[in-house]
Amino acid sequence: MKKTFAFIVQLIFLLIICKLGYYLANLLHLPIPGNVIGMILLFGLLQTKVIKVKWIELTSGFLVKHLAFFFIPISISLMTMGWLFIEFGLPLALTLGVSLIFGFIVSAWTVQKLSHRGEVKQHDSAHHNI
C-alpha cells in the first residue's frame, strides 16, 4: 500500500512538471514542445539537486521499463498515414539522417569531454580474469 501511494505521488509530481512545461511553452510562445521543456526543467532540477532522484525513482523506473508500450499508439497511427510518407518521405529521411549523424557527433564529443575530466571510467578487457 505504501509503495502504491509513493508511486501515485511520484507520478503526480512528474505530471505537474510535464504540465508546467506545456504551460511555459504556451506562455512564452516557444517553438519547442511542452513535454520537451518539461524534461529540460526536470533535468535542471535534478542537476541542481532541487529534486532528488529518490523522489521520482520508483515511477520513473517503471515508466522507462515500459517505454516500448508508449510507442504503440503512434505506430498504429503511422500505419494509417502512408500518404504522408509518399509525399514527405525524402525530406523526412534527410531530416532523420542529419539528426542521427548530429546525435552521434554530439554523443561522441560529450563522452570524450567527460573522459578527459575523469568522469567516464575506462574499461580494459585485457586486465579482467575470465
Question: In a nutshell, what does this entry contain?
Answer:
This protein is mostly helical. The protein has helices at 2-28, 34-47, 57-65, 72-79, 82-116. This is CidA/LrgA family protein.
Tell me the β content: under 5%
Order of helix and strand elements from N to C terminus = HHHHH
**How many helical stretches?**
5
Poorly predicted segments: none
Q: How many strands appear in the DSSP assignment?
A: 0
The tally of structural domains comes to: 2
| Largest sheet data | none
Cα distance, first to last residue?
A: 44 Å
Helix content: over 70%
> What is the overall silhouette?
extended
Structural class designation: mainly alpha
Overall pLDDT, averaged? 85
Radius of gyration, whole Å: 20 Å
Overview of the structural elements:
The protein contains 5 helices and no strands. The termini are far apart. The chain is an all-alpha fold. It has 2 domains: 78 residues, no CATH class; 39 residues. The mean pLDDT is 85. Helix 1 packs across helix 2 and helix 1 packs across helix 3. The longest helix has 35 residues.
